[in-house]
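ingest -> fold -> write
write: protein_1
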Amino acid sequence: MPREKKEHKYYKNKTTLTVYLVLRALIIFTLVRAVFRREYQSVFLCALSLGLMVLPSIISKKLKIVLPSTLEIIILLFIFAAEILGELNSFYVRVPHWDTMLHTINGFLCAAIGFCLVDMMNRNDRFSFQLSPLYLAIVSFCFSMTVGVLWEFFEFSGDYFLGMDMQKDTVVNAIHSVNLDPTLTNTVVHIRDIADTILVHSDGTQEALGLGGYLDIGIIDTMKDLFVNFIGAVVFSVIGFFYVKEKGKGKVAHRFIPQVERPGKE
């Protein structure tokens, strides 16, 4: 089968196909550059991204569902933004709130996936139960939050066992802790106006980090990620609720709700 027809087999919408081809070309360029630079971890991430780019359409074909072009484009841009821009081009560090934006979108997308899976069962005659719009929205929300929590477990494991920094640290200017209470009476000790952090090494030497405060290890980043995931999940769950309640009507919802493919439809 010619290459062009193969592409149209995966992405039949012209706008989606154009976005896919442009992003794929950029990824291939990045991959070739990484090969010449012998950056093999970048090569792996590029290859992973290329596989992920076609995964949504392959899954939709296997499960016989139709992904709206708007949702497909968001998924493609999300993959590119997370892997190529975020990881390889260090946007997570260089661009403020880049990670926050992606976690919000992730909450939205995971809610869409959860909604689609349950909606397919709702429409399937083999299942005897039918969820109401409210319960369908709740399941969609819970699915998204579960994925978000599992991802934070993954980030913590990478940091704790492999010495990575997936849970990005945050500079704070105050500490509130019972561990600093000398009386051991569970009294919170407040330390404010922290201007810098000084490390004392085992040989007695000291090093000022010049951070402008105390370095929080991951917890603020984790809670922020879960909170914005919550926002994305709520937004989609509300869209899904009204979509089911209005029996598939609504122009906005149709841009994000996957549809069960009708028999005989290509």
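write: protein_2
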Amino acid sequence: MNPRMRRALTTAQAVIILVIVIIAIGVGVYFVMAPSGGGGGGTTTSPSTYGTTTTTTTTGGGAGGGGGAGTTTTTTPKPSGPLAKVIETSQAVVIVGPKGSVVPSDVQVPAGKKIIVVAYKVDEEKTKPINESTGFVDIDPSFYRNATVDALIVAARKATDPFIRYQLYEAVYKLSNFEVPTLWLGQYVFVRNNWDWVHGRYYHPTLAERWDLIWEDTDAPTVNIGIKDYVNSPNVWVDVTHGWPDTFDPAADYETFGWAVWHNIGDSLVTYWKTNTETVSPDLAVAWVHNANGTEWYFVIRGGVKAYDPWHDTTYDINAVDVLFSLWRIARLGLDPSWMITAFFDMNASSVLSEDEFNQELQSGNLVAEVNGKTVQPTSLQDLLNAFGYNGQTAGVVKLKLYYPYGAVLSILADPFASIVPMKYFFDNVDQLKGKYQDALSASNNGKNPSAWAQFIGTGEQEPTHLYLNQYPVGTGPYYVEDMQENSYLVLHYNPYYWNKTLWSNAPFGQGDKPVHERVIFVINDDAVSRIEILKSGQADTGAIPLDRLKDIQGYQYPNSNHVIKVETGGLEPTIIYIVLNANKPPFNNRLVRQALMYAVPFDQIKNDVYAGYLARLYGVLPAGFPGHNDDIVIKYTFDLNKAQQLLAQSGIDPTKYSFQIWYNSGNTQREKIATLLQTFWGQLGFQVTVNALQWGTLLDRTEKGDFDVYIIGWAPDYLDPDDYAGPLLYGGTQFSILDYQVVTSLADAQTVLSG
């Protein structure tokens, strides 16, 4: 699976997590010790595992004569095969191994802990070779593959029992800490800056702010920003930053900047309204239901929505076919964020329904919806719309088929990569498709057979619709792209055709069907000092300012006014920073080397000198606040060069024979400083280390192909589930023909599952 390259961060800042999860805390060791054997004589005893003896003593005696005693002894044969892995978590002992593996004979289950067994068989034919895989798409960014880890991740993803799921994620967290294919570094403390004339900013852990929901004081200054005739004024939101969206095709974009743009120029089926993290709100879908086991979802599409094409000054009406086509196209292209569709949705088995056809489905009474904390079973479309409080137009229904129930399905569909683009837009403008729109509709039977679109839409980075949309993005959101120059500036203008523009008629968001922020401008500048000066001059309202330079702007007063720059701080964000090692090449394919490098990371110095204290230690793949994060069961790596040298000696490698490069994205001064510190201390271990900056797009292109040694990057959640970290950042792409997971009551039962 992928992963999501999912949103590798281009800045050191992201959004704060508002989800609080109760984490089960316990103390454990990496390998559990074994139970004592069974015993006793004169009775029948059951072995606690295998290789033990069952003794049955029988006393004779019958109506016809004498009696006697007989003893039968049976030894349970000890299975042969590879040893299963045993991982103790806070509330369970997790035993995982391939079919035919053996529970280690010395395993002991502490009192009060349950046994969870995961048995698997690798599907070698369907598992893509590592050297043919794509980072964040087919395999984790470290190109690390471990069938045991992968089996745990897939089992946790599919588990519906919260206990099993949480304990499996603790096991994943523990293994990510022990194997360290990635050097988990830290979790950000929330911090951001802006002039105090700005109001209405809010936080969400997965979605950027909507810039039409932010407003400014009317006495905010008007300042020429030095690009054409654009100005920063009370009606313009200006952000000075660095980097550039990886692509303007939402089906391919998997990074923070691009998602922020698409959250404002596009619409998905559902969304999170501002700070809400508990429930999604209607967006292009006005109502939805699912079958009893959650494998079929039906979405009623909002009528009257238009996509605006500013490049040809035309509009497109959006309907259910456009929705299905957009989601199907994500899967078809197979680019960075596609895993979030392909891992869970069978898009070729999904379809479009008319309102009448959907009504017939509802009449069965077998479809349910959760609305405002209540479960309802509507028996007609009108019942469903009433339950959601909607009385407007509709534009068809989309039925999405899942491979298995997945609790985060709505959260995934709220992501900006799932923004809806009109199908006809491609067939009107892409040379290879012009004049074929009706053919594509007919071939798919108006969306009932989406697999037919494969004869029109290709795959990969050179696919024509992808190349076109990257140059000419079109969406249905509150803004559209008005002007841009790569790596220089990006200008958005409010969309006069936006379906929800009446929102702007209400203070404080706007007036007369216009938002307060009629324009949004990103000024791109890779020099941190220049960004500080641009912000202080009032040319920008906010900026990507290095954390160690916040003291240079906090409280700065705008000349001849009472306005000052504010720096706000808060709790932990779900955003993490980590160091990716290429675990598919020496010396990083040696776990002891990876652990040695982990001990040679000067975290305290990075925390204080690079992030001004705004960083919390992270020991595994899951940040604090997500199920599975438990620091009581992992190795607490400290900065210890002596320990690092000992591990290198044990590894059997000679560090002086290895040279490698550490990459970071240009303009990110924090990562530059981290890379320089690593160069110093890893050099003291004997490695020959150089540091290089790459443009953001170049960094993504090269690293996703496995063409790297080490690089530094960040991660913000796509959706609010631990799988959104474990999957993208640790899953090695192993495919399984068998994957069985269950709670058992004895080690003998665990062995039965493994042997069966």
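write: annotation protein_2
The first strand starts at residue 53 and ends at 59.
The chain has three domains: 85-188+572-755, 197-246+481-563, 267-476.
pipeline exit 0
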